Fold this protein.
Amino acid sequence: MTDKIYVPADYVPILIQSLVALGFVALTMFATHFISSKRKRIRTLRKDENFECGIEVQGNARFPFSVKYFLVAILFVLFDVEIIFFYPWAINFLQMEWREFFVMLLFVALLLFGFYYIYEKGALEWNNDE
Amino acid sequence: MIFSKYLFFILSFIAIYAALKVLISKKPMHSVLYLTLTFFAIGGHYILLNAQFLAVVHIIVYAGAIMVLFIYTVMLLNLNIQGEFPKSRLAKFASAIAGGILLFTLIAVFRSYDLKVLADPSLNQIGLVKNLGKILFQDYYLPFELSSILFLAAMVGAVMLGKKDIY
Amino acid sequence: MKAIIALSILAVLNMFFGVRKMKKVLLPLIFIGLIITMILNISDWGKSVHYFNEMFIADNFSIAFSSVLILIGILIFMFANIYYKGVERPLEDIYALILFAIIGGIVMASFGNLILFFVGLETLSISFYVLAGSKKFDIASNEAAMKYFLTGSFATGFLLFGIALVYGVSGSFNLEAINTYILGCNGNVPMIFIAGMLLIFIGMSFKIAAVPFHFWSPDVYTGSPTLITAFMTTAGKVASIAAFYRLITIAFISLHSELTTTLTVIAVLTIIVGNLSAVYQDNLKRMFAYSGVAQSGYLLMALIVLGPKSAGILLFFVLSYVIATITAFAVLMLIREERGTFFIPAFRGLAKNNPVEAFAMAIAMMSLAGIPPLAGFMAKYNLFVLTAEGGYTWLVVVAVIGSMISIYFYFKPILASYFSEGEPQHKIESSVNFKINILVLSILMILLGFLPQVIINLL
């Protein structure tokens, strides 16, 4: 079995798909002006609010929030980057020797230990403010 | 392929324009969104170079995960405080000169180097996930394992800075 | 290699026991672990093993500098329980980060491949960024971490760009292969390669705080917790100068004659600016930051003239700097705890009430200033002789003038503690253990001054 030769042109379908997706959004936004009724759009202060739901908006969204969200986000990024490494490993799995398997095993072991550490430290708990 | 040449210029234009807008935009959130656009354009460049793994990783990690972090960071800032940080005229002048010299030098350096063989990047198969994986797990597994130590250090650091203790 | 594995296991164990809240276990565990690591590290002496396709080279140079890094770890942990006296928490995260930084430093002292070098540098730097901000409710510490992180990642960007350019032209990350590429160019090295190399040098100069790139160091070193400052100045400098030396002597050795001008300019500027800025500092911690800048200038001198002995002299210089700095910071830490200030008046009457501490501080400062017969003097003497033999007499003159300036500010705390008039400060209580530690370090500084050749001839 010979490996397929990949060229950038293989990505043309993806390009077309993203163009279609973008084009759909643009087209819809453009078309609404024509499809909607002939009457002029009613603009009021209430209707133009960002979160129009019947309850008065209080203050704005620009205030500092708890660092815990950020902690979760940063841990997510770390694990995300670690998981990326599984991809080339999995593709080569069939031709692999035991050594490569153990290389990954060690990597995952350290990753798991990191997760254990985070968990035990309570970084993922929310109700420990008392 | 003539098409990919035009694509290169389009992507480069988008990347540079968006990168400039990152710096110029007054609103931090706009900067972040323009940064995403830059990342996508660079991801396109990777595909043109046939570095598919890098392209996918770039979209997933940078345009996906890192941008989430950036947005969180912007939201952690207190944006109700308006106004710019004062910068002295001298600092602006000095940084413009320093940056200009760097740009000038780099352009001159790149121009002085003539590529003798114009390799067609689209036929290069080294950037594929499979070949990359082989190299990563056969030749470069020591840096790979050490990067797990690096991740562990980053995790410890994140947890430490995120907790409430004084030390 | 064994040292890295041992340290990783140690760090993981330390984190595990810390999470289990076994506070009492941690420091003994770390001491035993570090001593085992030291033994494992030295057991490879003389073998010069190359691991994983030249990825990691454990030659004598790397083993010697790794040993210095492990020694730094031992010394820092010696004073950790004093600095973190009142803390109830196990503090395993700070300890783990220190261990991770040492791992990064060891990698930086033994890499044979630029990728590994970068991973090591990042491990060291990321640990440092976090450690600088480890005193979370102190605004100065926050500022230090933020400044260090922003400027440091900027410099790392330059370094990475440089590595990319070098790789792009030479086609290899391997240090030997890069040298082969330079030799193959027959003196016609493309400018793009030179640009890449200089960008790498910019990154490295930032890491050792050489002069045009030193602006971060005073604020970062002043703001960070004192123990961490002691660790960062020593470990960061040792690891970076070892990496710099490796880069220059293996990868860029064929271009060395063209590099000397750049290095000389940086070294001269570093020595002059560092020493002159330190003169005006009243805050001792800030003074140490600037004097650390000046010391980087001396370290760079060892890279300008490469003789058969320059590695040994570099090792000896680094060793004497490490011991003196950590001793001085240990005393400084104690005084800060008691008096709440880093300024010179805090030393008033120290000799009367705390003779041991005053003695150790005096020895450390004199060693840093280069007063014979201490270790610091012998280090500087050998370095200057090496440089003069290489034909850089005027550089030696500049360095000697710098050293003479440095005597002024290094003697400020000594004068304050021994000869100051006015109301002496009250006595500081310190444990016997602490006294023994700093005494041993002082004696080591004196001993090293008499036996420099033992260390220098190691490499």
Observations:
- Chain C has a mean pLDDT of 89.
- DSSP finds 19 helices and two strands in chain C.
- Chain C touches chain B at residues 4, 8, 11-12, 15, 51-53, 55-56, 84, 87, 89, 91, 93-94, 96-97, 100-101, 103-104, 107, 113, 115-116, 119-120, 122-123, 126-127, 129-130, 133-137, 169, 190-192, 194-195 (CB under 8 Å).
